[in-house]
Every structure is written in structure tokens, then in C-alpha cells.
Amino acid sequence: MTMTATEPIPGSELAVDRMPGHWLLARMGKRVLRPGGRELTDQLLDALAIDSTDDVVELAPGLGSTTELVLGRNPATYVGVDRDPVSAERVAHVVNGPGRSVVNASAADTGLPEASADVVFGEAYLTMQPASQKAKIMEELARVVRPGGRIGLHEVCFAPDDLDEERCGAIADDLQRTIKVNVTPLSLRGWTELLNEAGFDVDTTVTNPLHLLEPRRLIADEGALGAARFVSRVARDSQARARVLAMRAAMHDNADHLQACVVTATRRSPN
């Protein structure tokens, strides 16, 4: 089931100059909002190998584009966890049916039973959390995932791994000014260490350029018609155009030190 453009978008009550960047892009008609685009989402789901025996949890499903892909793999159960009530309500339309649900809760306190999931994944969510919250979320995910279960992240990462802290801070500030949300990427090594410290053994890592707003990626993610529609809407709205161009410039100017990444891992058995 595909949602219509008339359904509410989180943050839609905010002025264009204050709306979080990913929801502004959604308002302009962009459906794929993930750092590495549909390509890395597909690689994430392939690495997680979701099948009909799996109980799956998705963090912050957003507009539900990845949710639809997951449901197409017919998992045993699916639960979306989203702290934004508007987003949770949107995705509830996609997951309606036996063994499919959405809970309006924080990823750091899902309310889900211990060891209740075979697969937990999130896209572009942990990147927007400060270090202390990242740790709390990982602690909660380690509680929810069964030993031997899988976790997958699709996030933004700094490159190279040894990029100095001052440069990382400047890049994060540049992104935050334009996207209007907290953006705190880690290096690929940082993401793998975060998972390892929470009790997961890393299985797969993949990186891609952060080309979310580049023409080739727009067409690959949205299709030629969808990309043209998005560009047309942005062009007609001067405030949105200024925001989108600023976001694109921040990514482009820091392209040598920003990537999209996928990391998957397996839950270790507790000692």
C-alpha cells in the first residue's frame, strides 16, 4: 500500500526556514530520504536476509518507503517504533494487518519485550542523536534483539576513520545549520565500535558517497518523473529552494569527508 502525498508530514506546521531538512524534502515530494539512497537500503535488507521466520523491528520508519520493502519479504511479525505521532500514524496505514503494528515510542525506550526480535534496523536515525542517546538506544536494542539476531544501521559517516575531531565538529556544525536538526555522524570505525560495545559482532560494512541531492541519485531513487516533480516543486518555492540548495552545498562542500554507510551485526550471547 502506497501513501498519498496529501497525508500529513511530520513538522508540517513549521515554517520552511525551521522545518527539519528531511521533512522539508518530503514536503517537496522526495520519498527516499536515506543517506545512501535506495541502493544502500537494498544492500542493508539483503545483508539482514529477512524472511518469513523473522520478528522485525524498524526504528523511525518515517514515510514508510523501507517498511513496504520489508513487508514484501513477508516477515513473521513487524513492529515500527517512531516517537513522532504523525509519522507513526502514517506508517500505521502501511502495516495494517495481523502481526503488523506501529508503536509511538522512543527508540531508547521501546516498551517491547526483552529478546523479542530477530532483526532490528534503522536508517538515518542514530546519526541525528547525540552520543549519550546513541548509547542508550544501543542498550535498548541489545535488550530487544535475541542472541543470534541481527541489527542493521544505514547512517552517515565521516571519512577517513582518523579524521580529526575539530574537522568532524566543523562538518557537523555545517550540516546542522542547513538541515536544522542535530547531526552527529561517526566514522565507520566509530559505528562498528558502537555496535561492538553494545554486544554485537559486525558482519558487513558498505559505504557510498553522500549524494542524496545530486541529480543522478535523485533519478535513481525517485525515478525520472519523481525527480522532475521534486525539482519543479523546489524551483517554484523560493524559501524551499534556498534551504535545499544550502543542504546540497553543505554535503557537496564536505564530500571528501562524508559518506553513507551500512553496518550489520549479530547479537552475541550474554556472558
Could you explain how this protein is built, in words?
The chain is of the alpha/beta class. It has one domain (21-267): Rossmann fold (3-Layer(aba) Sandwich). Helices cover 42% and strands 21% of the residues. Strands 1, 2, 3, 4, 5, 6, 7 and 8 form an eight-stranded mixed beta sheet that branches. Strand 5, helix 6 (165-179) and strand 6 form a beta-alpha-beta unit. The model is unreliable at 1-6 (pLDDT under 50).
The gist of it:
This protein has 271 residues and is α/β, with parallel strands linked by helices. 42% of the residues lie in helices and 21% in strands. The chain has one domain (21-267): 3-Layer(aba) Sandwich (Rossmann fold), CATH 3.40.50.150.
SSE map:
Blueprint: H1 21-27, H2 37-48, E1 55-59, H3 65-71, E2 77-81, H4 85-94, E3 100-103, E4 117-123, H5 131-144, E5 145-158, H6 165-179, E6 186-187, H7 188-197, E7 200-209, H8 215-236, H9 238-253, E8 258-267
Parallel strand pairs: 1-2, 1-4, 2-3, 4-5, 5-6
Antiparallel strand pairs: 5-8, 7-8
